[in-house]
Amino acid sequence: MEHYKLFIDGKFVDAQSGKTFQTIDPGTGAPIATVAQAGKEDAEAAIAAARRAFDKGEWSRMPVKARMAKVQDFADQVAQQGLRLAATESMDAGQIISLAKFMPLISITHMRNLSLAAATKFPWEEEIPVSGNAFAPGREFIRREPLGVCVGIVPWNYPMYIAVWKITPALCMGNTIVIKPASVTPLTACILAEAAKAAGIPDGVINVIPGPGGELGKVLCTHPDVDKIALTGSTEVGREIMRIASGTIKKVSLELGGKSANIILDDADIDLAVEGACFGTFFHQGQVCSSGTRLLVQSKIYDQFLDKMKKRAEMLRVGYQLDPTSHMGPIVSKEQLATVERYVKIGKEEGAEIITGGKRVDVPGMPEGNYYAPTIFAKVKNKMRIAQEEIFGPVVSVIKFDSDEEALAIANDSIYGLAGGVFSGNNARAQRLANQVRTGTMWINNYHIFSDFCPFGGYKQSGIGRDFLLECLHEYTQINRIHVNSMAHNHTNMYFQLISDYKKVDGFTYSAPTTVVSGHGALSSIYKAIVDLGCKRALILTDPGVKEAGLADIVKNALADFCVGMFDKVPADPDLEAVDAATEVARELKADCIVSVGGGSVMDTAKGVCVTLKNGGLANDYLNFLVLTEPQTPHIAVPTTSGTGSEVTSVAVLTSHKAGRKLFIVDPRISPNVAILDPIFTLGLPKSLTVSTAMDAMTHAVEAMTSTMSNLICDGMALQAIRLINENLALAVEDGKNEKARINLQVAATMAGWAFTTAQVGLAHGMAHTIGALHHVPHGAACGIILPKVMRYNVETSADKLAQVAHAMGVNIRGMSDKEAALAAADTVEALMQKVGHPMRLRDVGVPEENLAICAFHAIADTAVIFNGRPVSDPNDIIQLYTQAY
Amino acid sequence: MSCREVAPTIRIDLRFNGCCDASLGLCADTASENDLSEQLDGLTFIIDRETYQLTGDITISYVSQEGGQGYVITSNKPVSEWEGFAVTDIKF
């Protein structure tokens, strides 16, 4: 009799205890081989060998294509052993030879498919273009690495094929493995070990240790050097493995039991469904975890179907597994045969009716064989044990149902969810049902179809994890994330600054992608700009006031045939719904470019439209920071005020009614492509709007100077903006038609926009946002009233910057300290406001005094406050500032 | 095991827990004619004669360990190689 040894560290060895056991041919009851029986010490030796092999790196760090070549060499050796493997599998596991002869072939295919996928399709290294963290820029990528030492526990129904399911992904991903085959079917795993050695798989990479699960399982699943357990086996064993593996937090994948529903609908092709039901249940004597052992048959065809199925089952030939005419072989062991018989008895006791089978089969010349007849139980209720517990034998429970809904309820009434089927002449009906069965695999008009590129695994108590292809390969790796800081300096790191008193961010990245066209007649450039952007169908976005003033029509005429429509319903303080409504119009008109004509509300709405038009869905989907990865729908901005700076900024402020506040899309990719600053659009701007929008721009510029994110480029932009506003605002107020003053104010607003889109704003904006939201104070007016107070508050940390502001505003700061100059800057801002008739106090714009405290608590939570040069953490400070402004 | 009405006896029964390996379980049940019974510490254990032929004498231990507690059931003739690996409760 042939003797098989353990395979540990590349050597075939006997068990340290010297124990052996016999393996039995279930078709004859005769022993066919002796096998070394591994014990605890052998398991530890195998784990140690696998650990050494992994840590050595010859396999785990081998280039993936070299590893693929080795696995393919292994597959070739399996091919060379094909006949021996098939015959041994048949004799050891009772697989009929017409099934076993395919096992080497599908094993080889599996090894080749997975190794090729691992080498060419698997994302070993992946860039993360959008990190989701706007405050820590850097290259983000992940590397996938092997886990380490894996344990594969293999059942007895497909001993070779399932061993290959465990070995192949483990090896392809650079792991080492210890295989424990089932004790009743250990032989083909031992032959696989011979093939691995012949292929030159390095010592210790594969180890095979047949032996009792109860003893070896404890060692394999608790040993600290084991990183992953992959089990195909019973739910009870899987549950215990999960429990004991948790002690050392091992990765676990489990493919466990099933009690799958095979649903036969009344429109099914009866002959096909009968064949599918028999194959789904009696194939390999029913010893398949995915078997459709709950056969749900619709009442309209129940009698006819059952009659045909009975006849078909009685035609199945039960015989010795090596006889090529046998349709079914023996049950794998005496114990399993007894289990099947016990369940048949239970079924009878529960009131189910056997319509065929229910008894052993005598095969001539094989009195000790474990043969059992295909058995059909009718009149089964789904609550019966024979419908709830897996039998793992050729026994099917037929359950009658009336409606699709009832079939679905029955199908889902199980602790398992491994597989299932639907037979129907109507694919749509079948798929509707299949979609709702809570199970890992559903076959329509087919059964037991496994494919290398289709995942297999269970819902509910049928397991966790998936076998086959990429899903499986992922489960044999772990993810290593790498972050490489873009600005490797402690003073550029906003996170490190959380435990530092130094709050300034010194380094910066400046990006100003918008092309600006400015000056008298600048609008005519739009005709070329749209062509340069590759667009032909522009939708104008505007608001009712701008439309009424005739400004949108001026742009429409400039666009000529390129204009496909106009959306003129953008509200003040635009909400997400406004973006969605405009996007809908853009989609209907097949617009390929958005032209915004208006103030900040219109331009911010247009930015939202550009994103939703490009990416689909709703504006609410994109409220986030730095998540866009490619250029958006082209946008040409034509501002009709001189304040917001939105024509060049990377932010859109949109109201979310669900969130109850204004939220943002912040991304350089939403900066307009072109901004056209033509004074024709601001010459008619009323005095009050001229003043409040200019103070908005002034606040952008001053706060960009004093923010923690301020930088040399933005400082330059901001100072020039401040200078231009200081010099031109009064002129424009005095004479609204002063074109030069209007142009200068437009440029000032744009430059302030460039400054704050990188440097951010601060406390004044946070406070202004709040009183705007709670008391509907125009944003520019609120900014103006608050700004001088916040400037004085910030003197403590930003006196040098504010001194530059004073200088830009024409203050003679010679001889002044920075602090004196900074305070002078605030005074000068107030003087300018008074000169141009800007409201000076919150009481002037309708803010009730008793609400100042509430406003303060809202303001301290505003995003802008994060960047204020002087850290703000006490709401009392803000109450004081509001009070000063009151 | 399915739940039957609460009974004064505990059945030792063969059960299948999915994919490949049967085990022994405990269930509150009433005795039937074909059962063997044993009184132990005030409890009556019953087992189907055919199941007993398969298993031989049975040992039931109570274990309490990190992460779980329950009964470990082993038999003279193990019903599977995993016998004794996992714990079980009494099903009512």
What's the gist of this structure?
The complex is a heterodimer of chains A (886) and B (92). Chain A is of the alpha/beta class and 886 residues long.
Please characterize this protein's 3D structure.
The complex is a heterodimer of chains A (886) and B (92). In chain A, the strands form 8 sheets. Chain A has a 7-stranded mixed β-sheet, with helices on both faces. A 6-stranded mixed β-sheet of chain A has the order 10-9-8-11-12-22, with helices on both faces. Helix content of chain A is 43%, strand content 16%. Chain A is built from 29 helices and 31 strands. The termini of chain A are far apart. Chain A is α/β, with parallel strands linked by helices and 886 residues long. Chain A has 4 domains: 33-255, Aldehyde Dehydrogenase, Chain A, domain 1, CATH 3.40.605.10; 261-451, Aldehyde Dehydrogenase, Chain A, domain 2; 505-681, Rossmann fold, CATH 3.40.50.1970; 687-886, Up-down Bundle (Dehydroquinate synthase-like, alpha domain), CATH 1.20.1090. Chain B is mainly beta. Chain B has one domain: Hypothetical Protein Aq_1857, Chain: A, CATH 2.60.300.12. Chain B contains 1 helix and 7 strands; from the N terminus they run ββββαβββ. Chain B has one helix at 49-55, and strands at 9-16, 22-29, 35-40, 43-48, 58-65, 68-75, 90-91. A 5-stranded mixed β-sheet of chain B has the order 3-4-1-2-7. In chain B, strands 5-6 form a two-stranded antiparallel sheet. In chain B, strand 5 (58-65) and strand 6 (68-75) form a beta hairpin. Chain B starts with 8 loop residues before the first strand and ends with a strand. The model of chain B is unreliable at 1-7 (pLDDT under 50). At the A-B interface, helix 8, helix 9 and helix 12 of A face strand 1 and helix 1 of B.
